[in-house]
Amino acid sequence: xxxxxxxxxxxxxxxxxxxxxxxxxxxxxxxxxxxxxxxxxxxxxxxxxxxxxxxxxxxxxxxxxxxxxxxxxxxxxxxxxxxxxxxxxxxxxxxxxxxxxxxxxxxxxxxxxxxxxxx
Length: 119
Ligand SMILES: [Zn+2]
Description:
Blueprint: H1 8-30, H2 37-65, E1 69-72, E2 79-82, E3 86-88, E4 95-97
The structure holds zinc ion.
């Protein structure tokens, strides 16, 4: 996994986008089976299901987006969305928490800081 895009909403978005590509890819594969209408129909339906599923996931993102909290990232200063108690910044992957008790447990807040050589 790349270091970017670990934010929960970003990850779900990536998942939904990949579903679209998988669906299109399956339908594209189906085009090679033009001699077999059954396989072509199955791949078309399967690809269609993937595309439908992705729009379902996009709908789900819309639903859970209402429960996110907008916070200003202490690391890069941009406004990011936090889903749940612990999440990371959408832009710089700075670990963020809504619960002070979790600070430094599930995520180390110093994890992504470049400057902690102030001894
Ligand atoms: Zn940030």
